[in-house]
Design brief:
The chain is α/β, with parallel strands linked by helices. It has 14 helices and 19 strands. The protein folds into 3 domains: about 200 residues, FAD/NAD(P)-binding domain; about 160 residues, Polyamine Oxidase, Chain A, domain 2 (Alpha-Beta Complex), CATH 3.90.660; about 110 residues, no CATH class. The strands form 5 sheets. It has a 7-stranded mixed sheet with strand order 7-6-15-16-17-14-18. It has a 5-stranded parallel sheet with strand order 9-2-1-13-19. Strands 10-11-12 form a 3-stranded antiparallel sheet, with no helix packed on it. α2 runs parallel beside α14 and α4 crosses α8. The longest helix is centred in the N-terminal third of the chain and has 24 residues. It is globular. It comes from Haloarcula rubra.
Length: about 500
């Protein structure tokens, strides 16, 4: 449906009851679709507020988004709210960022002046940036983005919005015809190298792979579509932060009749003659349908009955997980210029950092990392004369992150930031919190403390990724980043629709 269409009046689930376990983006989206289809829906969230990984830290002065901080693919949000006859602007206000982001290359340990570029909404500017590094690169960028746009349009319509969970679903003649010319195999590294020689230009077209939980060396070339997202669809900021989008979804869900209950942990799921039994601290209830937005590994290992497993023993140990993250949430006094709303700091050779995540797990010696300063755009998230700063360093899941290691790494990152941008935060921090592998494992039961879920490797993409229907319990379904279509807020919204569609088809 387009955003201008009115919501459906069909109620195929009228009289049915449904529980959604977990109030992350996937869970809230699923709840909205189920309620729109007529079901009596309750969302159970074990933490003190909805949002899951996409949460908020606030102390009365500073406000921090704890998880996602990039608002990408605005068309997906418009499509989601449009299904219910609403628009994103009914719930939050968007600002298009200019620049979209700044990239700073770290050139040696003691470089006083680092090379940096801004990627902007103005494509003439971006073409000139590429041309300045390599003759002909401006024209090559146009060709690359033309291909990326085609991949995006076909990929979204044929392989994302349509849930193709079986290999045979890809053998449809119309699907094969529309997919002609798409590059499915090969790595992004090799694909980008066909267009550009300069390593910095290659990095500009591949850094978004971190949003998918992968690297240039293990992510299929199909994901060149992210460059269309990045360069041509725009980068936005919802005023108040990404958590305002969570609040928008909660408001929509409640308008549709969904009950959202916090501080309500689900400790078990079991088969019942008339549905699925849900065990919480408040007691036991049976619902016609349960959709788990809690990560699939946790549900499989911890919530399903003894002897009932979704996957074989060792399955979750064999997966390739997206990175975890070392995160600093800092309230800082004074200016942080030249940092932009989004700033990426990259070594000229970033392969060792990716190796430290996927090949030889260890703390990176010369890290690539991301700095988010939303107060550059939004003065409501920091007091006057201060800035809200979030530092995110992708690290390998499963690392030992004891207090001593964290202290050592914190100093390395803040020193690196001071060296390569001139922004020394260490003596100006008035509020500080951090998160790392342990927090993701303990707070969310994420396997190995991954911050994103399953990486988008070739063997974990499309029909090779977990689907939405449970094979362990009739009436149990899955949604969120562990399922199709995958990682990221827009994908979780679409996952919610797929999960709800599966429920409607089965009931």
């Amino acid at each position: 449906m387009t955003p201008t269409q009115t919501p459906t009046t069909r109620t195929p689930l009228a009289g049915r009851t449904a529980t959604v376990v977990g109030a992350g983006f996937g869970g809230l989206a699923t709840a909205c679709y189920l309620a729109d289809a007529g079901a009596d829906v309750a969302v159970l969230e074990r933490h003190e507020r909805p949002g899951g990984h996409a949460n908020r830290i606030e102390d009365g002065r500073f406000a921090f988004d704890t998880g996602p901080s990039w608002y990408l693919m605005p068309d997906v949000f418009e499509r989601f709210f449009g299904h219910f006859g609403r628009a994103p602007s009914d719930y939050y206000d968007l600002v298009q960022l200019d620049p979209h982001y700044r990239v700073v290359w770290k050139e040696g340990d003691e470089s006083d002046v680092c090379d940096s570029v801004d990627v902007r909404p103005d494509m003439r500017h971006n073409r000139a940036v590429f041309e300045s590094y390599e003759d002909g690169a401006g024209e090559a960028l146009e060709r690359y983005l033309e291909e990326a746009e085609h991949t995006y349009e076909v990929g979204m319509e044929r392989f994302v919005y349509e849930d193709r969970q079986r290999l045979r679903d890809f053998l449809d003649v119309d699907v094969l015809r529309s997919a002609r010319g798409l590059t499915f195999l090969g790595s992004m590294q090799d694909h980008v190298a066909d267009y550009f020689d300069h390593p910095k230009l290659r990095q500009l077209l591949q850094y978004t792979l971190v949003f998918l939980g992968g690297s240039p060396y293990n992510t299929p070339a199909l994901y060149n579509l992210m460059s269309h997202v990045d360069f041509e669809l725009g980068v936005y900021y919802p005023e108040g932060g990404l958590y305002s989008v969570v609040e928008g979804l909660v408001a929509l869900a409640e308008e549709l009749g969904v009950s959202v209950r916090t501080d309500c942990e689900v400790s078990g799921l079991a088969r019942a003659s008339d549905g699925v039994t849900v065990v919480t601290g408040d007691g036991v209830e049976t619902r016609d349908v349960v959709v788990a937005n809690a990560n699939l590994a946790h549900v499989d290992r911890d919530l399903l009955p003894e002897g009932t497993r979704e996957y074989r023993e060792g399955y979750w140990d064999d997966r390739t997980y997206a990175p975890s993250a070392y995160m600093l949430y800092l309230g800082v006094e004074g200016s942080v210029d030249p940092l932009e709303h989004h700033t990426l700091l990259l070594p000229e050779d970033w392969e060792p950092h990716f190796e430290s995540i996927f090949e030889d797990p260890r703390w990176p010696e010369d890290p690539s990392y991301y700095v988010n300063v939303p107060s550059v755009t939004d003065d409501s998230v920091a007091p006057a004369g201060h800035e809200t700063v979030v530092v995110l360093v992708p690290v390998a899941p499963g690392l030992d992150d004891d207090e001593g290691t964290r202290g050592w790494f914190r100093e390395r990152v803040l020193s690196d930031l001071a060296t390569h941008t001139g922004v020394d935060l260490r003596d100006r921090i008035v509020v500080e919190q951090e998160a790392c592998v342990s927090e993701f494992a303990e707070r969310y039961d994420d396997p190995q403390g991954t911050a994103l879920g399953l990486a988008h490797t070739l063997r974990q993409t499309g029909p090779l990724r977990p689907g939405h229907r449970s094979s362990a319990l009739d009436g149990l379904y899955y949604t969120g980043s562990f399922t199709t279509p995958g990682v990221g807020v827009p994908m979780c919204l679409i996952s919610g629709q797929h999960a709800a569609d599966a429920v409607v088809a089965d009931h």
